[in-house]
Each structure stands twice: as C-alpha cells, then as structure tokens.
Amino acid sequence: MNSNCPLSLSIVTKKYLRAYYKILDTMIKDMTSVILTKSISDNFIMQMIPHHRAAIEMSKNILRYTTNLELQSIATNIISEQTKSITNMQAIQNKCSKITNTDYENTYYMNEFKVISDMMFNEMCSAQITNDVNANFVREMIPHHEGAVRMSYNVLMFNICPELKPILYAIISSQCKGIQQMQQLLWHLDRC
Q1: Which of left, alpha, beta for 132 (phi over 0: left; psi -120 to 50: alpha)?
Q2: Which of 154, 146, 178, 190 is CA-nearest to residue 51?
Q3: What is the SS3 assignment for 62-103?
Q4: Domain annotation for the chain: domains and CATH numbers
Q5: Which of 30, 90, 98, 133 is deepest in the core (most CB within 10 A)?
Q6: Which of 150, 179, 187, 155 is nearest to 78 (CA)?
Q7: pTM (predicted TM-score)
C-alpha cells in the first residue's frame, strides 16, 4: 500500500482498496504472463484484454461505493466501451494472429511495452490514497488509461492486422477523452 496513506482509513476505503489491489494484482499477472507469439497484433490483443478487464472490474468496484453522479457516468462508460473493445478484439484475434513480425520488430515492441507497462503498474500501485474513494479511483484510473493510449501508439508503429487499427484508434480517442474528464473531476474533488 502507498506510503501517502493516512494512518486511519475508513471501513469503506479499506474495502474499496482491498478489491482494487486484488484487481490490480490480477491485471499485472495476466498482462505479464502472456505466452508471446510472432504476431505483434496477437500479442497486443492478449495483453490488452486483461488490461480492459481490469478497468471494467475497477469501475464496478467504485460503483459499489460512489454517490458522485459524474463518476458513476465515467465508470459506466468505461464498462460499456471496454466490454465492446474486448468483444471486437476477440472477434479478430484469430485472423490477426496470422500477421507475423520479425524477431527484431517483436523485440522492439516488447521492450517498449515493458517500459510503458512498468510505468503504468508503478503509478497505479503508488497512487495517492485518501479516505475519498472517488479521488482514489480517478488517481488510479488516469495512469491506467494513459498506459492504454501509449500501448496503442506503440503497436501502431508496426505492421499489424488492418482490422486492429480502428480498435486502436477507438482506444486512443475514448481513453484520451476519459483522461480529460477524470483530470477535471479530480481537480474539483481535491478542492472539496
């Protein structure tokens, strides 16, 4: 748990955080234990699905506790958009796995993926904790979204499955919009 954590956490905050860290641990394990193939498209899909699943579970977690209407809307949108994105990736995965890349490309892709994912994992693990679960969620979800955007840009640098490209652009667009919304909400939450 984060060293910025206050000495005394409410029962609600403790329950929220217990679920959050369990979801985060599962995401890290599932994203880093993918059995890699020669296809960057396939590898990205296998890495992004657990990333999206974690966002869905984190959103369901905050919905158990928040009464903030704007945050309820953000969390509901995350669930909807990322469920759709998972379905779209699963629908093209078999076809995309046939688009292979060179060893050099795969190494370059994975080196950059590791830098991006390590930064994201670190920021999510060390997000500031307060007794405001709304602010906690936003501080945790912003680096999660930023990681998805950077991972999507990373995969776009390579020869990938054409059907994957619109999904990547949708991830970039929706998550950049989500980052903006959450930054504005956090500004207001921190001043209340």
Answers
A1: beta
A2: 146
A3: HHCCCCCHHHHHHHHHHHHHHHHHHHHHHHHHHHHCCCCCCH
A4: 11-30+37-191 (1.20.1260.10)
A5: 133
A6: 179
A7: 0.93
